[in-house]
Amino acid sequence: MPNSLLHALELRDTLTADERKAVLRAASNEIDFKTGQDIVEEGERPNACSLVVSGLAARCIVLTGGGRQFTALHVPGDFVDLQSLLLKRMDHAVLALAPTRVARVAHAALRQITVDFPHLARLLWLMTLVDGAIHREWILSLGRRQAPARLAHLLCELFMRLQAVGKVDGLSFSLPLTQAQMGDMLGISAVHMNRTLQELRREGLISWQGQAVTIKDWQHLKSLAEFDPAYLSLEKAPR
To answer: What average pLDDT does range 146-162 have in this prediction?
Structure first.
């Protein structure tokens, strides 16, 4: 069930009982994907949008020479391709980075929501605007932040996004990614990624054992990253 989406929406505004029912009714068809499997393929023309119920997914663009760039991470409660309702053709792929369950929400159901529940439609629009804000921060990181600050910023962001949908335990969260995958996101080599991770560990900012990341010094990590969560629009306000 797409409870994480409801959690994410209600963190930002109040839903009516009918709006909650509309979300649950629309997102009833769930599919499981294995690690590395495409959830949406580049060039595809989906007739439904994909909502992450559990697991972790990434937008990915692959070059002809085999190089790739991750352009976004999607956690439970995120639509990975809500824009396909209007853009129609996918210009990138979305793949599962871990075993991931996805709820398919038919375009027809979403179009009906825009007619029957304009407030809910505005909240879904807000989620695409938050996606855009996250993209801007990632571009800033790739262009201007040094590697330690890039990693610190991504970890701060992921913590706040997972906290917003109830997927953290204190200051710890699960991150089922390899250092090579993290390097792809940060635009650095796997070797550079390892050195950067060791630097944050030596500074006592984080621990990372297996898939478990723990933030040990939140204030210092935020300071290193110059992290301001305002772009995530996590405050509750009428929309």
So the answer is: 97
Give backbone dihedrals phi and psi of 60, rounded to 5 degrees, phi first: -145, 135
Q: Please state, in angstroms and rounded to a whole number, the distance separating the CA atoms of residues 222 and 232.
A: 15
Same domain, 169 and 210: yes
In a domain, 237, yes or no: no
Range of the domain at 26: 3-134
* DSSP secondary structure code for residue 133 in this structure: H
Q: Span 223-237, mean pLDDT? A: 97
Residue 197 contacts residue 151 (beta carbons within 8 Å) = yes
Nearest CA to 93 out of 135, 50, 53, 151 is that of: 50
Instruction: Please state the pTM of the whole predicted model.
Output: 0.94
Partners of 208 in the beta sheet? 213
Phi–psi pair at 7, nearest 5 degrees: -60, -45
Q: What share of the chain is helix, strand, coil (3-state, %, to 5)?
A: 45, 20, 30
b/e code 134-144 from CB counts within 10 Å (16+ = b): beebbeebeee
DSSP annotation of 39: E
Instruction: Check if the beta carbon of residue 124 is closer than 8 Å to that of residue 169.
Output: no
Q: Which residues pair with 69 in a beta bridge?
A: 61
Please report which residue ranges of the chain form alpha helices under DSSP H.
3-12, 17-26, 84-87, 107-116, 118-144, 147-164, 179-186, 190-202, 218-225
Does 167 share its domain with 53? no
For residue range 32-59, what is the model confidence (pLDDT) as tens digits? 999 999 999 999 999 999 999 999 999 9
- Do 111 and 198 share a domain, yes or no? no
Residue 157 scores a pLDDT above 90: yes
What is the rounded distance in angstroms from the CA atom of residue 151 to the CA atom of residue 148?
Answer: 5
pLDDT at 149: 98
